[in-house]
Structures are given as structure tokens and as C-alpha cells.
Amino acid sequence: MPSQSVWKLKGTLFFFHASMTIMVSYLPVYFQFLGLTPTEIGILLAVGPAAAIIAQPFWGFMSDKWKTVKKVLLLCLAGTLGIGFILFQLSHFLLIIPVIYIFFSFLSPAGGLGDSLAQKVSMEKGVSFGSIRMWGSLGFGSASLAGGYLLSWIGIQHIYAVFAVFIVMAFIFAAMAPDSTPSRKPVKLESTKQLIKDKQLVLFLMFVFSISLTHRINDTFIGLYIVDLGADESVIGMAWFIGVFTEAFVFATSVYWMRKFHPLTLIVIAASVYTIRWGLMWFAPNASFILAIQATHGIAFGIFYLTAFQFVTTLVPRELTSTGHLLFISVFFGFSGVVGSSFGGIIVDLFDLKTLYGIMAGLAALGVVGALLYRKYYINLQNSRIAS
């Protein structure tokens, strides 16, 4: 059965995204344990997205050039494990900066490579990409709940031990997983100029950025907003849990809804849900209301990410598929993460968290307009090609 041949990929994504939960949720707590100041912690947390901007397209290109996604994924997982061991032996701020940059240069691309491999293999095996990708969300959600209890029991100083177990498990599953069938066309560095000059791709990434910027701002500030509304830190974990598991449900059911609509129509729908989501959070009276709104995370992110990720495949040459995938992820998570953290911090300093979510609703609305205009442009372009 085709489904039986991809369970190793499901395991890879489950354990890798579980490891990401540990980094996203508990790395700031670990740095606080080391005695670093809030300013120093903020700088270190910005290094990861900054590293991803360059590292993700680079490793995507190398996987296309070397004609293997699996081996590059294994290289990134091994690099993450080794550099991570060094990172978590350090306690001095200035020593941590260059090491954490190298660490995220391996860690950040691994997620994109895993998704790229899953998307390619799913097409070759005739299974739904969402049915594979949902296991990443399940891993993230499970670890978001269990990780806090485990680290409170063994101590935050042992964060690397928990992280390393997840990475090793991801490596084992990846080593057993199938590789995708590569394009026979050779890839050179000059080939990437095609992507930079491709108007369809550049315009697509521009409106993707307007949506992903709001997504990444929320990643940074939702915890602060929940506390600001009077709840304690335990509600933050519950909010992540609800969001991630609704996301997994959307991924799991993608085989039913993706075939019914044009990808750009789905992206417009997702962008509209983002706009409604931030608008509701803008007027949220309490943290319980935020928990109810979190169910819309799965609809917005699940539809947007899954559809946009697969749509990129149609915009790039087959021999540059992984480069295109990781360029998209670099924009969605890397560039948006750097800009979002800085922009969000400025808005909160000048106004407050509620105002930030109001501005996010406005930005997402601009993303809806951009998506509608792009959809019209793309369909007209396709029709003109057919006519000629």
C-alpha cells in the first residue's frame, strides 16, 4: 500500500517538530536560567530567523544540485545535534551569538527539507501531502504539552537532553525514509537567477509576506497578550495545543477540500480567515476568548501554508523544486520572523498589545487584496498562454 511506504516520513516530521517545540517554547526560559538580560535574550532569539533567511534557500539549492533531499536533511539534523551540544555548554552572551547562528543554520532548513521531501514523495506515491504533514503538527502539539512537565521535572538546564532525543529519533526515521526521485537536469548557481527574475514567483512571495508577517508577530506576542489579559502561563500552553491540533485536523482532511477549489482561491479564503482572526483578538475581552479564537489558527495557517507550499511547486522548474520550497519557507518564517519581532516590539512600545492586533488585522486585509489581485493576474496569464 502507498500509505505504508511513507510512515517513516511521518515519524521524521513528528519528532523534528517536537524538537522545534522545545526550542520555540523553552529556549528563552533556558537563557533566563543562564542569567542573560531580556535585551540579550531578545537579540539571541532574533538570530535564528536571521540565519534562516540565508540558510534555507542555500540548503534547498544544495539538495537540488546534489539531487537528494534526504541526504541533505540528514546532514542538517546531524549538524543540529553536534552544534547544539556545543551551544548548550556555553553561558557567555558573546560566545553564544556565533554558535547559535550556526545552530539555526542547520536546524531551520531541516523543517523545510522535511516538508519538501514529504511533498515530493507524496506526489510520487499518490498520497495526500497533508496526511504526512499533519504528523509534524501532532509532534509539535504533543511536545508543547509534555515538554513543560518534563523540563519542570528534570530542570531547564537539561533542555539539550530532551531536544537531542527528539533530533536523534528524527534522524533515525529520516535515514529509513525514501528519497525523492530527482530531476535529471543539472543545476548550477546561475539557475537560481531564474527564480529571482520570475515575476510570478516574486509577486507571490510579496503577498505571502504580508500574511506571514502577521502570523509571525502572533507567534512572538500571543503569550504576552494572554498574560496581559489576566491569565497565567499555563493558558499559553493550552492556546498552542488548541491551535496546533486544529492545524493537524486541517492537514489531515486536505485530501477532501484541496481538490475542490483552485489553490489561489483557497489562499484568498485563508487570508480572509487571518483578517477575521486578528480582528477578533483585537477586541478579545479575556484570555478565555483567545482560547476559543485559537481554533481558527488551524483553518488559517493550515490552508494557507499547505496550499501555498504546493503552489510554489507549480511556479518553479522541477529541478529547482527544493530551492523554491525553502525560499518560500525563508520568507514565511525567516524574513517575516525578523521583521515581525522588530515591528511588533516597536508597536507595543508605542501603543499596546491590543493596538498591535488591530494593525495586524489591517495588514492581513492588505494580504487579502494582494491575493485577489494576484489570483486575477495569474489566471489571466494562464488564459493568455492557452490562447496563444
Automatic annotation (TrEMBL):
Keywords (A to Z) from UniProt: Cell inner membrane, Cell membrane, Membrane, Transmembrane, Transmembrane helix, Transport
Pfam family membership, one: MFS_1_like
SUPFAM superfamilies: MFS general substrate transporter
Main location: membrane
Coiled coil start-end: none
Record protein name field: MFS transporter, PPP family, 3-phenylpropionic acid transporter
Keyword Cell wall biogenesis/degradation: no
Protein topology in the membrane: Multi-pass membrane protein
Membrane-spanning segments: 12-35, 41-60, 72-88, 160-180, 201-218, 238-257, 264-283, 289-312, 324-348, 354-374
GO CC terms, sorted: plasma membrane
Any GO MF annotation of the entry: lactose:proton symporter activity
Domain Major facilitator superfamily associated span(s) in chain numbering: 7-357
Subcellular location field: Cell inner membrane
Keyword Repeat recorded: no
PANTHER family attached to this UniProt entry: 3-PHENYLPROPIONIC ACID TRANSPORTER-RELATED (PTHR23522:SF10), BLL5896 PROTEIN (PTHR23522)
